[in-house]
Design a protein that fits this description.
- The structure is a single chain.
- The protein has four helices and three strands, in the order ααβββαα.
- The protein is an alpha+beta fold.
- The protein has two domains: about 60 residues, no CATH class; about 30 residues.
- The chain starts with a helix and ends with a helix.
- The structure holds zinc ion (2 copies).
- One zinc ion binds next to loops.
Length: about 90
């Protein structure tokens, strides 16, 4: 995966900011706080830090992040509005 480890090795400023993070990692997991890697989310346009274990879970869809839930609610609203508008148009017609 592409993470900030490479950046850490080549960018002294970033390396200094990351001195709390153990070697071989580039961040702390957002879920459990274990050392992990900062990289792009497999399905969402966002970047986060995940340990190997939680990265696997993200990739295999076992974790539904808040963004996904918001997206589902958004789709439900769209579908609901569509059904409502069709229904009210039908009522006007009859
Ligand atoms: Zn984790
Ligand atoms: Zn890394």
């Amino acid at each position: 995966m592409s993470c900030y480890c490479k950046e850490r090795a080549t960018n002294p400023k970033l390396a200094d900011e990351m001195k709390e993070i153990p070697n071989g990692y580039c961040g702390f997991c957002e879920i459990c706080g274990k050392p992990g890697h900062m990289c792009a989310h497999p399905r969402l346009p966002t970047t986060g830090v995940w340990c190997d274990e939680h990265w696997e879970e993200l990739v295999s869809h076992r974790i539904i992040p808040l963004g996904d839930i918001a997206q589902y609610i958004f789709y439900l609203l769209i579908v609901g509005m569509f059904i409502y508008s069709v229904f009210s148009a039908w009522k006007d017609f009859s």
